[in-house]
Amino acid sequence: MLHTISTSPFQTQDLQRCLQYLRPDDEILLLQDAVSAGIEKNSWCEAIKKSGVKIYLLEADLAARGLADKVDNSMNVIDFKGFVLLTEQHESQLKWG
Predict the structure, then answer these.
(1) Which residues neighbour 94 within 8 Å (Cβ) at sequence distance 6 or greater?
(2) pLDDT tier at 97 (50, 70, 90 boundaries)?
(3) Superkingdom of this entry's organism (predicted)?
(4) How far apart are the C-alpha atoms of 60 and 41, rounded to whole Å?
(5) Which CA distances in Å does 75 have to 42, 61, 89, 91?
(6) b/e 59-82 (16+ beta carbons within 10 angstroms → b)
(7) Hey, what domains does the chain have and what are their CATH numbers?
(8) Eight-state DSSP code of residue 72
(9) What secondary structure letter does DSSP report for 42?
(10) From CA 57, how far away is CA 54, in angstroms rounded?
(11) What whole-number distance in Å separates Cα of residue 85 and Cα of residue 63?
(12) Span 66-93, mean pLDDT?
């Protein structure tokens, strides 16, 4: 399953709730303000890395927030084409926030 999150984990509990329901073969796509969770050396970045699932961040949202050069190197940054491919790979998806 692909979990998409668009709200900042510093303002909502969407990411926290998502992490509670993950299965080993799930993946997370962070969009809009949620990309802040993928910034190196913050508590949310460490939490999602410990989840053991693949994490993707949308490149355009990182750039719009001036965060492109602050992403943890374990995260996967994708463009819009990658976003489309990711959604095509997952039959089921769940949007958080």
Answers:
(1) 1, 2, 3, 4, 18
(2) confident
(3) Bacteria
(4) 21
(5) 13, 14, 18, 22
(6) bbbbeeeeeeebbbeebebbeeee
(7) 2-96 (3.40.1260.10)
(8) -
(9) S
(10) 10
(11) 20
(12) 96
Q: How many other C-beta atoms are found inside a 10 Å radius of the C-beta of residue 10?
A: 13
Q: pLDDT digit string (tens) for 10-38?
A: 999 999 999 999 999 999 999 999 999 99
Length of the chain: 97
Q: If phi over 0 gives left and psi between -120 and 50 gives alpha, with beta otherwise, what is residue 11?
A: alpha
Q: Is the dihedral of CA 67, 29, 94, 83 positive or negative?
A: positive
Name the residue type at position 12.
T
In terms of Cα–Cα distance, which of 43, 36, 20, 18 is closest to 28?
Answer: 18
- What residue has token string 């190197």? 73
